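Usage

Read records sequentially. Each one opens with the input sequence:
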Amino acid sequence: MKTPLAWLQLSHERIRLLVAMAGISFANLLMFMQFGFRDALFESAVVLHRRVKGDVFLMSPESTALIAMSSFSQRRLYQSLGVEGVEAIYPIYLDFALWKNPETKATRAIMAIGINPVDDVLDFPGLTEHQHRIKRENGILFDRLSRPEFGPVADWFAAGKLVETEAGGQRLTVLELFELGASFGADGNILVSDQTFLNIFPSRQRGVIDMGVIVLDPGLEPELVIAQLKTLLPNDVMVMSRQEFIDFEKNYWQTATAIGFIFSLGAGMGFIVGIVIVYQILYTDVADHLPEYATLKAMGYGDRYLLGVVFQQALILAVIGYAPGLGISSILYVLTAQATSLPMAMTLGKATTVLVLTVVMCVGSGAIAMRKLSAADPADIF
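and closes with the structure output:
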């Protein structure tokens, strides 16, 4: 089997080939990390949304995101019981309190989630068997996936040490751990009873909640109930399906903050860097072998054949540069997830997106570099 001319051209200058691989891998690394951070932003922002057991959700129209909730009267939840198909309702309190690191005494904002201890409304790992314990006033469950700045709470608890600290000026005792995870909006979380929540936030009133959760009868179409609720309830609450609830949060981070734009811009810059690198490699290769291309033209090979050689070079560079970028990015995803507690994970969709962008990047660079190939005139060379 004959070795393709495109590969012979590239492998003839091994140093140049290695530089090209490194450049493309670096461009891939930039795109992978930016896409990874962007997706981690969106996924971490809706972890709580996905863990709430409900079909329909009520929120104040003044709420913009989970980190900026406005309260509304719990009466709206009770009113929803008048709609046929509503099986259960659950109120949830949300707010940020200053948590005191039990080791260093430094303070940091932590998200407090307040629920009725008997409500089966949250699906957190490690919660089911321990939720009843928050009936104890000022007893809390601590998110073991919170950032380390909140102190060695999980390690102390696992070692059997009594963990006591303060939040909002209240003395709190960690009774058990659960798992939710940090996000760009909340570095850590605690789960408390509604009474403990009101102790931490004395300015808050009982019955003035931040999220209303409605569970429907099995098999019932949420859209039908949502339409009735929108008709029944005043406009001081928003009625959303689960997907609308999730999309509402994602839309905030994507459009109302600069973070989503910054990560997308970073991925775009990686793409541009890759185009420049590949173009320089291909352009230099064509320029260095211009006499050989002119000779091939004199032998009867047409422009289509020669252009095909350049495109083959571009595709080869895309493949051999993509593989190291994918491998290094996968390792960095794991390290980043461990360091930040963010859900950084390599997915098939992400890997495919970057592969397609890499191919487009290299082929586009080849198309630009082909302008030099048109200068390969046998009459000028000889």
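Summary fields computed downstream for this record:
- DSSP finds 13 helices and eleven strands in the chain.
- The chain has a mean pLDDT of 86.
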